[in-house]
C-alpha cells in the first residue's frame, strides 16, 4: 500500500530557491499580493482576523534601487538584521516619506548609538547591557523605541536570544529603561522544513507571552509575537504570530545561505 505524505502549506513553500528575484514594481505588487494571500488563508484556517497580522518586509542584502521599487509597491516598513547596513540605507532613502525601519538582528553595544538615531523598532533585545546603552542613547536623541525581546526557543546553543526561563525576570528588569517600550517577543524557529519541529518553537513563544501578560506589571501591553519567515509563517500564524518577517518571498532568494546571517545552526537539543 502506498501512502502519500500530506505536506502543509509551510512545507510546500520552504525551499527558498523557488523565489525569483523581484526586479520591477509589478513583481513586488504580485509578490505582496501572494504573501498577503498566504497570510489571509493561514488566518482563515486559524480562525483569525488577517488585520491582526502585520507583514514586516525584510530587505537585508537588497540594494537601494530594488528597495525603492518595493516602496513604490507599498512597503512602508523594512526589517534589516545588520545595523550598519540599515543605517546606511536609512540615510540614502531619507526622501521616502513614512518609511519605518526595524532592526531584527543581534546588536552590539557599540552600535546602539546608530539604532537610537533611526530605528522605530528593535526586535532582538536579549541583554541588559544593550538595554542600558540604548536607553542612554535614546534619552540623548529624545526618542523612544519599541522593542521585542528575542527568545531562543529552539535550544540551539548558537542562536541569540534569552533562554525561555529567563524571559519573565528580564522583562521585569526592563521597567528600569523607560525609553524602551516592550511590545512583545521575537524568535527564530528551528530552520527545518519539518513543520512538526518548527511548531513547538512558536507555541513556546506564545506561552511565554501569555505568562508575561499574567505576571508582569503592565503585561497587558505586551501583545506582540514576531515569528515566522518566508518558509514557515503559516505555522507561526496558526500559533498566534502578530508580526511575520518576510524577505525572500517578497524580494527573491538571497545569494547567501542563512548561516551567513545567523550563527550556524548547531545540534538542537
Ligand atoms: C532574514 C531574516 C528573516 C526573513 O527570512 P526570509 O527567509 O527571507 O523570509 C526573518 N527574520 C530575521 C531575523 C532575519 O534575519
UniProtKB/TrEMBL annotation:
What does this chain do?
Pyridoxal 5'-phosphate (PLP)-binding protein, which is involved in PLP homeostasis.
Q: In this chain, where does the modification N6-(pyridoxal phosphate)lysine occur?
A: 60
What Pfam families is this protein classified in?
Answer: Ala_racemase_N
Keyword field contains Cytoplasm:
no
The answer to whether keyword Amino-acid biosynthesis applies is no
The UniProt entry, under NCBIfam families, shows: YggS family pyridoxal phosphate-dependent enzyme (TIGR00044)
Residue intervals of the Alanine racemase N-terminal domain: 41-254
Q: Which CDD domains match?
A: PLPDE_III_YBL036c_like
Q: Sorted alphabetically, which keywords does the UniProt record give?
A: Pyridoxal phosphate
Q: What is this protein called?
A: Pyridoxal phosphate homeostasis protein
- Family as reported in the entry's similarity comment: Belongs to the pyridoxal phosphate-binding protein YggS/PROSC family.
